[in-house]
Amino acid sequence: MSKRPLQEPTFLLLTALAQGPQHGYGIMTDVERMSGGRVKLRAGTLYAALDRVVAEGLVEADREEVVDGRLRRYYRLTPPGGDRLAAEVERLRQNAAVAAKRLELRHRAMGDLA
Amino acid sequence: MTAAGGLEARYRRLLRWYPPSYRGRHEDEILGVLMAAARPEQSRPGARESLDLLWSALRIRTRMILRGADSQPWADALAQVGVLLPLLMLLLKLTEFLSAGAHRSFGTPADILIGAYGRPGAYAFSFQANPYSVALTGNITDALTKGPLPAFLLAVLVLLGWRRAAAVLAAFVPLAFLGISLTNGYTLLAGPRGDVTLYAYGLEALILVIAPGIARGWRALQWRPTVLLAAATVAAGIGINGGLWPLLHAPAPHPLDLAGRMALRAQLPHGFIGRLFGVGAGQWGDWLLYQGTLVAVIAVALIAMLAGSPVSRRVLALLAIPFALGAVIYLCSLISPPPPASAGNALAVSPLVLFLLVAMVYWLGHGPRAGQDVPGRPAAPGDA
Questions:
Q1: For residue A68, is it left (φ>0), alpha (ψ between -120 and 50) or beta?
Q2: Do the beta carbons of residue B173 and residue B332 sit within 8 Å?
Q3: What is the pTM of this model?
């Protein structure tokens, strides 16, 4: 399995599926909401990303529905996808902890100087 | 037609840029998302949305082509060529060096470094005959394409299993050549051999990035096709230097003498095959006797490989790419009146840019392919 850090859109895509299966439009709106509107996946980008994570075995099709005459395909996280996301969360958590610790030390040092 | 109907039709037109098989699986689904995300009364796709769809279609198409390499024969062929190509290039350089040196002289280390096999004093002469900067840049580009050092280093890196370093070196050679040539205003349509060499390095860089590992390449190698290809390479190396005649008969005149230059010019071959194998006008009898033998060796080797296995056929097809591109460029250079240098350069550079661009996009998008590069001594060829 690749140990390269996930790109943010991929990370958010996997996160959107962490709670349960979602269809394309659901993922798109969820990613935008989670990122506070900063990351907007357009349809082309979303499906190119889905194509990649499906090929990597991180995500798989769950079920299909027809709503208002249109096909909706739901996607879900696979067990390797869950592991990959968990590993990425841990990596980010460790980085954030180190950064927070350093900032705290920096603030203390600046406080001592003042 | 309603606004929604018009929008849907326009989205469908944009989705035609996707590969048909992908469209078959996802068109309705993507269309559903696009329509759900559309503003009320929107009748045309937005510019960003359109660009996003076109760019994604390109990515999906590229990915599907590269995924074709996931099939077993292609994966094996790519892995084999990733290992074979540097070794064959080194073997070709070694053959050229030995056959030219044997019937003339091996020359100084500097002569060998710039690939002036059998032309002793060529390096020093270049500085006498040209301004310093012209001679220097010419010698550097010669060292990159004709000299043995890049091929030697590439072969060593592949033998060590250092794929990333090998890929970087393979990409560096054509990039450095192009950088030097273009900044100095050279015409790149220098000759089929130079072009073929550059394409071979570019192709090797691409294959090292997309192939499933050097270790797999060693495992997939089979002794029979490898020996056949090696024999064909040695035959081509001898053929490039004028065939068997100079090896079996009197030494050729010194190429830097006036008489020698005249003699060589008189024998200058015409056409791609002629240039490759040294066929001169009125020399067909000699050619059949001395060089036809070499061509026969090459032909038999290639035909045997073609009939060998699906993997061998693919190996041969991949190895033929630099030659095919070189032949196209060479044929274009024969157009009368010749195309302007800028058009020729653009034509010659395009395949290289394509190779390196695809390799870069693949590398950035995926990293190197899964598959372990095993440092140290690789498995012996044929250890399947």
A1: left
A2: no
A3: 0.58
Chain A residue with minimum CA distance to B36: A25
Span A28-77, pLDDT tens digits: 999 999 999 898 899 999 999 998 899 888 999 999 888 888 888 999 99
- The residue behind tokens 């900032």 is A103
How far apart (Å, rounded) are the C-alpha atoms in residues B265 and B255?
10
Q: Which of B29, B31, B35 sits opposite A73 (nearest CB)?
A: B29
- A residues 20-59 lying closer than 8 A (beta carbon) to B: 23-25, 28, 42-48, 51-52, 55
Beta strands in B10-163 (DSSP E): none
What are A54's two structure tokens? 């499906």
Task: Output DSSP code: residue B279.
Answer: -
Identify the three-state secondary structure at position B63. Answer: helix
Q: For the packed helices A24-34 and B20-37, what is the interaxial angle rounded to 10 degrees?
A: 60
B52/A42 Cβ within 8 A: yes
Which helix (H) or strand (E) element contains residue B145? helix B132-145
Separation of alpha carbons B94 and B89, rounded Å? 9
Residues 6+ apart with CB under 8 A from B181: B141, B188
Residue whose entry in the numeric block shows the structure tokens 């840029």: B17
pLDDT in tens, B125-148: 888 777 877 788 888 888 888 888
Adjacency order of strands within the sheet including A22-23: A22-23, A70-77, A59-67
Give me the torsion for CA of B31, B36, B38, B43, rounded to 10°: 60
Least Cα distance to B281 among B295, B267, B262, B261 occurs for B267
The identity of residue A109, as a single letter, is: A
